[in-house]
From TrEMBL:
Keywords: Methyltransferase, Transferase. Residues 111-257 form the tRNA/rRNA methyltransferase SpoU type domain. This is RNA methyltransferase, TrmH family. InterPro entries: Alpha/beta_knot_MTases (IPR029028), Ribosomal_eL30-like_sf (IPR029064), rRNA_Methyltransferase (IPR051259), SpoU_MeTrfase (IPR001537), tRNA_m1G_MTases_N (IPR029026). One of its GO terms (molecular function) is methyltransferase activity. It comes from the Bacteria. Pfam families: SpoU_methylase. GO terms for biological process: methylation. The keyword Transferase applies.
Amino acid sequence: MLIADPHDPRLDDIRDLNKSDKSGEGLVIAEGHLVVSRLVSSRFPVRCIVGFANALKHYVETYGEPGCPMYEVDRATLAEVVGFDMHRGLVAAADRVAPLEVSEAISDAKTVVVLEGVGDHENIGSLFRNAAGMDVDAVLLGAGAADPLYRRSVRVSMGHVLRLPFARFDGGFTTWQRNLDLLADAGFHLVSLTPDNEAVHLAEALAGHDKVALMVGAEGPGLTEHAMRATHVRARIPMAEGTDSFNVATAAAIAFYERQRSLYQG
């Protein structure tokens, strides 16, 4: 259905994306063919897909009918509505749903990652993309972790935040760690990542464990002492002399790979 008026209320779900990620309106926004397709196949009910004529045609030919309204707009109209030139030419909005409980997210999991204080949305998106690519079953969010459904996180993750189960622990910065007992009681071996030279080698920390929870902290400060005390072991990634740390998404990716390697070797 063609919409030529940028003020048409049917476009309100994607309006002013340059000013808001729409989380305050209870929405999830996806951009581009691949991410939109992952939104459509996710647990989030899609309200509409908006795009250029050729983008909508390509979407249907590639992924099939989405089962929601599809609105055609030209480039100028879309730019006026969202607030910038959206060259991808395809955007979708969906309703948020009730968040998963931690017990639901880990019910069939063997490998999970726990995030404390990771507040950068691009890091969150990168972590989810890395986790999805390396057999991590769920992402658990501690205090200070940013919203995975923020528009930038969805985009950077290539839509994997829409596919990978995630849940948030209750509690503040000095209390959320008590909930890690849920993982220990479920049989997870809890490993906190730290650059401390006194920590054990990551490969040693992971060897021989059927279920593992890898915990990473924010850029700079890393994990709190409260969090590390709640884990079974502190592990380090060996680094070349003169370096002190990795980007959190990079460190997590290395840990995910080492976890994969330990499983295949075991």
